[in-house]
Amino acid sequence: MAEDRSIETVEEGDDYYHVRYADPDEFDTIRTPDWAANAAESVVEGSEVRTGHKDGGGDDDWETQSVLVPVDEVDDEDEAKSAAEDIVEKIKE
């Protein structure tokens, strides 16, 4: 992952807290990589990581765009933020 970002916003949807680190419009490509799924699942079952890439950058220039944390697996928005931070730390290891 290319750079550290802090949480910009948290939105509660029907199924997930969408913990956003960057606006998706900043990226040319966004994907949910399999390699990040293991880290996300080890923190909160059912979580997902979306990463973004800007064209012209190297292969290592993928950044965390957002973390999706299932609303049924955490108590509130603060717990979703904490889980997202733990997931981001795990994928940096």
Structural class: alpha+beta
Order of helices and strands: EEEHEEH
Sum up the overall morphology in one term: globular
Distance between the termini: 10 Å
Q: Please, how many domains? A: 1
Give a quick account of the main beta sheet: strands, pairing sense, barrel closure: 5 strands, antiparallel
Number of helices: 2
Estimated radius of gyration: 12 Å
pLDDT < 50 stretches: none
Strand order of the largest sheet: 1-2-5-4-3
Biased composition (Basic and acidic residues): 47-57, 80-93
Region (Disordered): 41-64, 74-93
What keywords describe this structure?
93 residues; alpha+beta; 5 strands
Set out the fold topology.
Blueprint: E1 9-12, E2 16-20, E3 29-31, H1 34-43, E4 48-53, E5 63-70, H2 77-92
Antiparallel strand pairs: 1-2, 2-5, 3-4, 4-5
Structure report:
With 93 residues, this protein is an alpha+beta fold. The chain has one domain. The chain has 2 helices and 5 strands, in the order E-E-E-H-E-E-H. Strands 1-2-5-4-3 form a 5-stranded antiparallel β-sheet. Helix 1 packs across helix 2 (77-92). Residues 41-64, 74-93 are annotated as: Disordered. Residues 47-57, 80-93 have a biased composition (Basic and acidic residues).
